[in-house]
Design brief:
The chain has 191 residues and is of the alpha+beta class. The protein contains nine helices and six strands, in the order ααβββββαβαααααα. It has helices at 2-9, 16-24, 81-86, 107-116, 119-144, 147-157, 159-164, 167-174, 178-190; strands spanning 26-31, 36-38, 46-60, 66-72, 77-78, 93-106. Strands 1, 2, 3, 4, 5 and 6 form a six-stranded antiparallel β-sheet that branches. A hairpin with a 5-residue loop joins β3 and β4. α8 (167-174) packs across α9 (178-190). The termini are far apart.
Length: 191
């Protein structure tokens, strides 16, 4: 649980009592790879903090093509923010890619913590702002960068994920087919 508390105190100071209260509102679970934590159509009830392993969020379009929206590895949070905040059915799946230990914080407990420890609202606002900035940058990259440039940027920003995440998921994240991705990587390695 040290990683979770460290993640929070990067942004807001918590007393030992506040840390204890926060942890009392969470649940830690072990999940095997390929476990689905959230199905499209369900209402998202939790935010997930990754102690170990890797998770991804994705949707599946009408042509049964997966589109990876985000990854979460050790020390990262993941959720379907749209569904969690609006309490409307999710458009996303959240899946464990690599065996993981995950801390769950329910929306109900998160709301209670806002009341009991008001500075946690600031912490989650910072997380939300960072996610908004990252999503906006990703949209801009998808509109203005080539596939090679998007992959190079992904590789520099998330070097550990290159080894942990299947190539097909990276291809989906940067917006190309696995076949194109394979050819592009081969071409880049020849340079």
């Amino acid at each position: 649980m040290a990683a979770l508390i460290d993640n929070i105190i990067k942004h807001v100071a918590l007393t030992p009592q506040e840390q204890e209260l926060f942890l009392s509102k969470t649940e830690t679970h072990q999940y095997k790879a390929k476990t689905i934590l959230l199905n499209a159509g369900e209402i998202c009830k939790n935010s997930y903090f990754v102690n170990s392993g890797v998770l991804r969020s994705f949707n599946i379009n009408d042509n049964i093509v997966e589109h990876v929206m985000s990854f979460a590895c050790q020390g990262w949070w993941i959720s379907d923010m749209y569904s969690l905040i609006s309490q409307k059915p999710s458009n996303l799946f959240i899946e464990v890619i690599e065996d993981a230990e995950v801390v769950l914080l329910s929306k109900e407990n998160q709301e209670q913590l806002y009341h009991d420890i008001p500075k946690l609202e600031r912490f989650f606002r910072i997380l939300t702002e960072n996610a908004l900035v990252a999503n906006q940058q990703r949209i801009m990259d998808n509109l203005s960068l080539s596939a090679e440039e998007r992959f190079e940027k992904f590789s520099k920003k998330y070097p550990s994920l290159i080894q942990q995440v299947p190539q097909k998921h990276i291809a989906s994240f940067i917006g190309v087919t696995p076949e194109f991705f394979s050819k592009m990587k081969s071409k880049m390695l020849r340079k």
